[in-house]
Amino acid sequence: MAVLEEQGQIQIHTENIFPIIKKAVYSGHEVFLRELVSNGVDAISKRRMAAMAGDCSEGDDGAIRITVDREAKTVTISDNGIGMTADEVKRYINQVAFSSAEDFLEKYKQENDAIIGHFGLGFYSSFMVAERVELLTRSARPEAEAVRWSCDGSPNFSLTAAEKEQPGTDVILHLMEDELEYLEPARIRTLINTYCDFMALPVQLEGETINKMDAPWRKSARDLSDQDYIDLYHYLYPFQGDPLLWVHLNTDYPYNLQGILFFPKQTGRADWEKGEIKLYCNQVFVSDSIKEVVPRYLLPLRGVIDSPDIPLNVSRSALQTDRRVRSIGNFVAKKVSDRLRNLKKEDPKGYAEAWDALAPFVKIGAMEDEKFAEQVSELILFATTAAAGEGDDADPIACDGRAFTTLEGYRSRLAADQNKRVLYSTDDVAQAGALNLWTSQGAEVLKLETVIDTQFIPWLEHRHEELTFQRVDSELDESLKDNDAELTDQDGTTESDRLRDLIKAALGNDKVTVQVQALKAEGAPPAMILLPEQMRRLNDMGALMEQRLPGLPEHHVLLVNRRHPLVEGMLKLRAGGVLVGAAETSPTASLAEDVARHLYDMARLGVGGLEPNELAGFQTRSAELMGALMQRGL
């Protein structure tokens, strides 16, 4: 065997490259293990391909072996891959490929993203944790001899002949004193489980294979059962229950991408900024923040996206945004919409059952992405007061005691002269009085009860300019009122006039418009607050901008139902006194004003218009009023 001994200098033309690798290129020291294991897997793959071409020996089944020597303070990462000759070590290890150090440093300082993907510095990440790195390697090519390369983190290296029985490469890290945590097997195991769990080759520590290896997203959907998907979800997200549904991604043109995305069941928490989807590159974990890849409205999905075509920086810790990334985002959104469309078609009830959890993704996505809006326009459901239909293709869809419909389904049930108005409610409790008035007369009302609907309704109106969306408590249709003629007294005033005068005098608030009507519906409330649609929206928008809950606008309408027994009783009390607002009033007239104020307070309470500090006073006044009425036998 020829004697090889050589001294030289790594051809990087500057001594500044190692500080950059150690402190700037990589954000975390622990990724050294990911890089070295990945290099080993690549070497094994190269040996297989070379062996198929007859250029080298086949070798045993590939594996990555990690050994720890506490006394020597070393961690060794070994592979039985293609290995390297002395010339290949000089070419691949000693020459960090860039045009010049000055050019590199200038680009790095001014355009950090510009160096992404251009420099194969993975091996050099080992110098983040090691004060000295040895490389013992033997090529699998015929007649190859083993060599040992050593470097202390400076541009100086040594390359000598060595003894190694089998082809492959050992990377021996002599750890720095402040990096000895990597001598702990538990620490190594955690890193492998994090970064290399789904690599196709076994990664062994102390003779035990510690990675899962099986990556379901690399298989065809035909080869996976529902339980396979559920098991993957449980493995990636322990203690999160079962997923709602999933989307299998697989394409090789115009880019290579596989993945599985899960819709989680509602948990009351969603990360719309960072996300929980895990990004892999050839089954190597890269990041759990992929806001550059998928649209923002899909970030709260969970699962895996694996693509070698997503441009990463040299440390794989950050993404470049380019045309391919945007195209991948569009592809993912399209696959999600296709999955939802198929579910709605094949299992309408199952789709309706999942709608509460799906709605935020679909609604936000439609508002933010016009292309996605086109894809999901027929998939948007609304809870409705209409009775559910029967059969698989029924509309409305029955689901757990509720009914769901689409906007087109809702319009198809309206009379020709009404199909341009969409009635909706946002709170069954606060708007119960108005909601009952409409439904008692046979009107169908959509229920839009989530926070996002404040923005979604105007978006729907903009998209459907022919429609007007009207909340049930904004105004009342003539069909809800009994417009029978009222009798007038000697001075030409009606019962409604007297009620209006009484209440306005009792409230003493010019910003409250008092309307008196006879309402048809049985069980209609004695009084209710009406909020004109545009005025209420302006108020809600102002509250949103100030990050507070919307309150009752100063200007609003108090509708009084003159047919309600309480209102009729108030008039009887008033009849026993002199004119309201005059210098002298009888006790009954004063009591009538107390009832009027009580009606107003109840109407405010119904729409959340009573401030917390007003509730105690309301309770006190209510008790006093009840006592006064009982004393008079009323």
Protein architecture, described:
The chain has helices at residues 17-25, 31-52, 86-94, 101-110, 185-195, 226-236, 323-346, 348-368, 370-376, 407-412, 432-440, 453-463, 495-507, 533-545, 565-575, 587-606, 612-631, and strands at 5-9, 64-69, 74-79, 130-138, 147-151, 156-161, 168-175, 203-205, 208-209, 245-251, 257-263, 276-281, 284-287, 302-306, 382-384, 397-399, 402-405, 421-425, 446-447, 468-471, 512-517, 527-530, 556-561. The chain is α+β, with helices and mostly antiparallel strands. Among the domains are: 5-207, 2-Layer Sandwich (Heat Shock Protein 90); 216-347, Ribosomal Protein S5, domain 2. The longest helix is centred in the middle third of the chain and has 24 residues, at 323-346. The protein is elongated.
